[in-house]
Amino acid sequence: MSLSIFHNPACSKSREALALLQSRGLQPLVIDYQQTPPSIAQLRELLALLKLPARELMRRSEEAYARLGLDNPALGEGDLLAAIAAHPILLQRPIVVNGQRALIARPPELLLEFL
Fold first, then answer.
1. How many Å apart are CA 93 and CA 14, to the nearest integer?
2. 48 is known as an active-site residue
3. Number of Cβ atoms within 10 Å of the Cβ of 27
4. For 36-52, how does the pLDDT look when each residue is reduced to its tens digit (9 = 90+)?
5. Residue 33 burial (10 A CB sphere; 0-12, 13-18, 19+)
6. Element housing 78 (H / E)
7. In the CATH hierarchy, which fold is given to the domain comprising 3-114?
8. Which of 2, 5, 9, 11 is flagged as catalytic?
9. For residues 77-113, b (16+ Cβ closer than 10 Å) or e, as one string?
10. Could you tell me the residue ranges of all domains in the chain?
């Protein structure tokens, strides 16, 4: 099984999701996305697995979201993905990928049905 988590160690929900996976005996590949930001191509792959539009991949409460004017409805998917790639703090977290499926694990308990 190919299991990975896009993780922010400073985020309590991300830490809870990782702990939940590990408590089930799973050892996911942990991707600290702020240290190793995903490329636009990787973000497109995540969107395809999540079956969501790019805006749903973003943390709208982040200061950078407002500062960069990302609430502009005229911005396209490419614009939003470029913003996430350049400012990885904007990426929703945690994201767990299991094979050909992915989930934004907020709240982490969503993983119980996903696994």
1. 6
2. no
3. 8
4. 999 999 999 999 999 99
5. buried
6. helix 77-86
7. Glutaredoxin (3.40.30)
8. 11
9. eeebbebbbebbbbbbbbbbbbeeebbbbbebeebee
10. 3-114
